[in-house]
Amino acid sequence: PVLYSYFRSSCSWRVRIALALKGISYDLVPVNLIKDGGQQFSAEFKALNPMQQVPALKIDGITLSQSLAIINYLEETHPNPRLLPQDPKKRAQVRMIADHIVSGIQPLQNLSVLKQMGDKKMEWAQNCITSGFQALEQILQHTAGRYCVGDEVSMADLCLVPQAANAERFKVDMGPYPTICRINKALLELEAFKISHPSRQPDTPAELRA
């Protein structure tokens, strides 16, 4: 497999965690979203992913984009360890939390949106994350065990950790979200989350390396 990724992209990070958890080795091709006006806008990359976004994964003779579509494919082709619970209710909760983050929070503070916000980008990002986290904290109080849903790592956790890192980067006060903080801390102790971390990627700038 070949993963087209950017070290700081939360969507790419989700996929890197899934690949690490499932023990799938891959080649990484960095796509710098800032350099050269954004390498994702090159004709070469557009041919690979018409949405001009990372991640993209070449695997088994196909090219997939959209992090949850990629993670679902990995789940179906490499079922162990599983990222979706067997219980239908828990499975629905995992998908709900994942969707809450990938649809309801992350796109609103994405690079393409922030570029349009000018001087207000920090305030905008903080507002989007805060309103999303207020809801997420409430949801997790009902679903969480050690992790987002019960005591098994799931697709929801793969979405939570990169979003918590975004919150930190945009200086969001995490005080009101003890459940999010507790789960995030537990997940960051796991090897798959460590090796996939933005501070440990081949394209991480020297000053941001762990």
From TrEMBL:
<feature type="domain" description="GST C-terminal">
    <location>
        <begin position="87"/>
        <end position="206"/>
    </location>
</feature>
<dbReference type="GO" id="GO:0006572">
    <property type="term" value="P:L-tyrosine catabolic process"/>
</dbReference>
<dbReference type="Pfam" id="PF14497">
    <property type="entry name" value="GST_C_3"/>
</dbReference>
<dbReference type="GO" id="GO:0016034">
    <property type="term" value="F:maleylacetoacetate isomerase activity"/>
</dbReference>
<feature type="domain" description="GST N-terminal">
    <location>
        <begin position="1"/>
        <end position="82"/>
    </location>
</feature>
<protein>
    <recommendedName>
        <fullName>Maleylacetoacetate isomerase</fullName>
        <ecNumber>2.5.1.18</ecNumber>
        <ecNumber>5.2.1.2</ecNumber>
    </recommendedName>
</protein>
<dbReference type="GO" id="GO:0005739">
    <property type="term" value="C:mitochondrion"/>
</dbReference>
<keyword id="KW-0585">Phenylalanine catabolism</keyword>
<dbReference type="InterPro" id="IPR036249">
    <property type="entry name" value="Thioredoxin-like_sf"/>
</dbReference>
<dbReference type="Pfam" id="PF13409">
    <property type="entry name" value="GST_N_2"/>
</dbReference>
<dbReference type="InterPro" id="IPR034333">
    <property type="entry name" value="GST_Zeta_N"/>
</dbReference>
<dbReference type="GO" id="GO:0006559">
    <property type="term" value="P:L-phenylalanine catabolic process"/>
</dbReference>
<dbReference type="InterPro" id="IPR040079">
    <property type="entry name" value="Glutathione_S-Trfase"/>
</dbReference>
<dbReference type="GO" id="GO:0006749">
    <property type="term" value="P:glutathione metabolic process"/>
</dbReference>
<dbReference type="InterPro" id="IPR036282">
    <property type="entry name" value="Glutathione-S-Trfase_C_sf"/>
</dbReference>
<dbReference type="InterPro" id="IPR010987">
    <property type="entry name" value="Glutathione-S-Trfase_C-like"/>
</dbReference>
<dbReference type="GO" id="GO:0004364">
    <property type="term" value="F:glutathione transferase activity"/>
</dbReference>
<dbReference type="InterPro" id="IPR004046">
    <property type="entry name" value="GST_C"/>
</dbReference>
<keyword id="KW-0808">Transferase</keyword>
<keyword id="KW-0963">Cytoplasm</keyword>
<dbReference type="InterPro" id="IPR004045">
    <property type="entry name" value="Glutathione_S-Trfase_N"/>
</dbReference>
<comment type="similarity">
    <text>Belongs to the GST superfamily. Zeta family.</text>
</comment>
<comment type="pathway">
    <text>Amino-acid degradation; L-phenylalanine degradation; acetoacetate and fumarate from L-phenylalanine: step 5/6.</text>
</comment>
<keyword id="KW-0828">Tyrosine catabolism</keyword>
<keyword id="KW-0413">Isomerase</keyword>
<dbReference type="InterPro" id="IPR005955">
    <property type="entry name" value="GST_Zeta"/>
</dbReference>
<dbReference type="InterPro" id="IPR034330">
    <property type="entry name" value="GST_Zeta_C"/>
</dbReference>
